[in-house]
Design a protein that fits this description.
alpha+beta; binds nickel (II) ion; Jelly Rolls; globular; 31% strand; 5-stranded antiparallel sheet; 228 residues; DNA Excision Repair, Uvrb, Chain A
């Protein structure tokens, strides 16, 4: 499932994050953290993970995703990898087709995270740069994604994806992975659809015996599939 999360960051949070991700932020060659097949494809910059700026911004991004009910319903997060930050522009401007590693080790907290879901939070105004679309190859063909600053997309980490070359300006983003309580994308999708339709039914008819019973079915499915 590919899902657009709108206004994950408030205007004030976004302005503060953008101010801290200027040219003088501790950017490093993104290839330093890529392995194997990704290495040949990767050409961008990443914020030094151990820097004070990175730690501060990670807190902002984690707080934003944790308060978003749509993120919770769609991702059913068990663990979230510490958010990373990247910049595409100038000579370091693209990331070719690749697949993210299945298990990732976080330098920040030392834990291993299985990458069930990938998240990209767009941080630059889309009018301020050309190119830089995130292209995710899914079963319906390639999806080209370029979102307003402060919006995010989540998609199954099982998909081949790339970032198109940035030909003007700079594309800033945060990206990270989520290990879900529900490992299967198909099961997560069923649960998300059910949750969203229950919300709509309640909005239309209030709480009824049927919505109560279906909510029970939702939780019984989640109980059957979830690992906590
Ligand atoms: Ni990737």
């Amino acid at each position: 499932m590919l899902l657009h999360l709108k206004n994950l960051l408030s205007k004030d949070e976004l302005a503060s994050v953008q101010a801290q991700l200027g040219e003088d932020a501790p950017w490093r060659d993104g290839r330093s953290s890529a392995g194997g097949q990704a290495l040949a494809q990767k050409n961008n910059q990443q914020l030094a993970q151990e820097s004070d700026v990175a730690r501060q911004l990670q807190t902002v991004v984690l707080a934003a995703v944790r308060r978003d009910p749509l993120f919770f319903s769609a991702a059913l997060p068990r663990k979230i990898f510490n958010p990373l930050f990247n910049r595409y522009g100038g000579d370091a401007n693209h990331y070719g087709d690749h697949i993210d590693g299945a298990v990732l080790h976080s330098h920040a907290d030392g834990q291993w995270v299985r990458s069930d879901i990938s998240c990209t939070l767009f941080l630059a105004d889309p009018d301020s740069y050309d190119g830089g679309e995130l292209v995710v190859v899914d079963s319906f063909g390639p999806q080209r994604i370029k979102l307003p600053a402060g919006d995010a997309v989540i998609y199954p980490a099982t998909r081949v994806h790339r970032v198109e070359p940035v030909t003007r300006g700079a594309r800033l983003a945060s990206f990270f992975w989520i290990e879900s309580m529900v490992r299967s994308d198909e099961q997560r999708r069923l649960l998300f659809d059910m949750d969203m339709n229950l919300l709509r039914l309640r909005a239309q008819h209030g709480e009824t015996a049927e919505t109560t019973a279906l909510t029970g079915t939702y939780h019984n499915l989640l109980r059957m599939w979830a690992n906590t």
